[in-house]
Amino acid sequence: MNIELAIIGGTGVYDPEMLSDIREENIETEFGNVPVKIGTLPNRVSAAFLPRHGAGHTVPPHLINYRANIKALKLLGVTKIIATGAVGSLDLTYQPGDFVLLDQFIDFTKSRVMTFYGGGGQGVVHVDMTGPYCPEIRELLIIAASKANVSLKSTGVTYICTEGPRFETPAEINMFSQFGGQVVGMTSVPEVILAREAEICYATIGMVTNYAAGISPNPLTHQEVVETMQQTQGRLRELIVAAIAHAHEYKRECSCKSAIAELGKFK
Q1: Which residues contact 104 (CB under 8 A, 6 or more apart)?
Q2: Does pTM surpass 0.70?
Q3: Residue 99 belongs to a domain with what CATH number?
């Protein structure tokens, strides 16, 4: 089996609506088993879909088995991932309903396993994260957004990743803003790091679902996030389908494919 493209669905993105002829495969990894849906895209290319939080949002962000998810996609032959994620805005110019393309991240998680390589027989990897999100997949999404007439903020978007599952305090949001963050979420780390270690090209489309604590005039709720996500589903699907339609322009000349060359090859 060789499925080159995968879509990781975040909060509110639980069903692979852009796929047809869907079947489910259970991928066994040393980190656990992962159910992955595989189907056909409008351009007749096969792709995998993995709901990050499980079917119906049953897994909180701090308990997601990130290593199993990325390893399962690697075993399928995936070389490029388009991920989605709900984000809160730290900046009034990033409004609910906006799409953002993540550029950098700052990690404030506390208890997550960040690497496939724990030393010993596994070896040690100090993976370069100068450009955390694949520049070629980002460019593909920028082109697709333009052709699909979907507004996408793509320059200088810094994502703050928190542990969750609670929302942040206003004091934390104020600090994150001073650190240069534009949006906040709970899932891009360690997913983006593990994808880099697995030498998979990876980019994330963030959907702004709310203003963060201290900026929003109302208490934050998960229902608010889900409702905003539901309102953006059509545009998100258009963007992903448009990106896939132009995937032939993707040459994979980035550094993602050799991210751990110093160790040899991803195992």
Answers
A1: 132, 156, 157, 158, 159
A2: yes
A3: 3.40.50.1580
- Spell out the residues 6+ positions from residue 137 whose beta carbon is closer than 8 angstroms to its own: 80, 81, 82, 201, 202, 203, 250
Q: Strand runs (DSSP E) across the chain, as ranges?
A: 5-9, 20-29, 32-40, 46-51, 80-89, 99-101, 104-108, 158-162, 183-185, 201-211
Could you read off the pLDDT of 77-135 as tens digits, one per residue?
999 999 999 999 999 889 999 999 999 999 999 999 999 998 877 788 899 999 999 99
Within a domain: 150: yes
Show the domain range for 241: 5-258
Which two tokens mark 114? 């960040």
Question: How many domains does the chain divide into?
Answer: 1
Query: What single letter denotes the amino acid at residue 115?
Result: T
* Assigned domain for 115 exists: yes
Q: Which two tokens stand for residue 246?
A: 């132009």
